[in-house]
Amino acid sequence: MTWYKEVVIDVQFLAAGIPAIYLWLHYSRNKVVKFPQIKEYFILIAFGALYEIIGTRWLNIHTTLWFKIYVLLEFVCIFLFFRRISAKKYQKIYLVLLWAFLLTFVGLQTHWIMGGTPKTDSWLSMLETILVYIGSVIWFKNIFSNMDLDTLWKSAEFFFISAFILYFSGTLFLFLMTDFVFSTKEMSKYWIINIVLSLLADILIIFGIWIGQQKSPQYSG
Q1: d(Cα 135, Cα 152) in Å, to the nearest integer?
Q2: % of the chain residues with pLDDT over 90
Q3: pTM for the complete prediction?
Q4: Cα separation, 52 vs 144, whole angstroms
Q5: How far apart are CA 160 and CA 152, in angstroms?
Q6: 96-103: long-range contacts (C-beta < 8 A, 24 or more apart)?
Q7: How far apart (Å, rounded) are the C-alpha atoms in residues 99 and 32?
Q8: Can you tell me the distance from the alpha carbon of 49 to that of 138, in angstroms, rounded to the nearest whole number?
Q9: With the C-alpha atoms ordered 163, 44, 88, 123, is the resulting torsion angle positive or negative?
Q10: How far is the C-alpha of 109 from the C-alpha of 118, rounded, in Å?
């Protein structure tokens, strides 16, 4: 592992992992969940931070299998988040996206097991991005149609969605550059972009959780 990747992983653990783990343990111990819409994704942040620092940083475990598992769990967590904050009339859209992702996931992993390249998993990130964009458009559409919030800055959901848009927009950029990234000897430097965006997104989500503790207005459209 290159030194700059180690530094980024350590910074991510300190800036996002430790706060996430602390909040997770705190609310688990007190049996109080003040951020139910995002709780699965939040737990994934905490677990992912632990794995990165222990599995990747210390034990130097190959990340291919972890990435596949993480992408699957990540999609499911985001799927649950958008279903919870959206009206029933939009639920079929999310179910279609879920089935599309699961079928694609099974197909790509079968291809990988049979000797194919793991870089085709970029298609899974593309489907995650589509889910985030569709869910975000639905949320913003309902917010501005109903005008139920006085200000977006006091909405925890706004920060959660902003984090997803930031991170997956960067993922889309890497997806479009897949062939180039995998063909260059400097591949790890390009994937630092992904790690940095993940760090920023995690910080936004943690900040959104803090906003949520201030009894911020919630909307479920």
Answers
A1: 16
A2: 27
A3: 0.82
A4: 39
A5: 11
A6: 97/127, 97/130, 97/131, 97/134, 100/127, 101/75, 101/127, 101/128, 101/131
A7: 32
A8: 30
A9: positive
A10: 8
3-state secondary structure the chain: CCHHHHHHHHHHHHHHHHHHHHHHHHHHHHCCCCCHHHHHHHHHHHHHHHHHHHHHHHCCCCCHHHHHHHHHHHHHHHHHHHHHHCCHHHHHHHHHHHHHHHHHHHHHHHHHHCCCCHHHHHHHHHHHHHHHHHHHHHHHHHHHHHCCCCCHHHCHHHHHHHHHHHHHHHHHHHHHCHHHHHHCCCHHHHHHHHHHHHHHHHHHHHHHHHHHCCCCCCCCC
Place of tokens 């972890």: 66
Structure-block tokens of residue 136: 């975000």
How far apart CA 209 and CA 24 sit, in angstroms, is: 11
CB-based burial of residue 48 (10 Å sphere; 0-12 exposed, 13-18 middle, 19+ buried)? buried
- Tokens, residue 38: 């995002």
pLDDT, tens digit, 9 for 90 and up, residues 111-149: 878 876 656 567 888 899 999 999 999 999 988 887 767
**Highest mean pLDDT (candidates 13-17, 30-34, 89-93, 217-221):** 89-93
Contact indicator for 120, 104 with CB cutoff of 8 Å: no
Q: Residue 214: phi, psi to the nearest 5?
A: -90, 15
Amino acid at 140: F
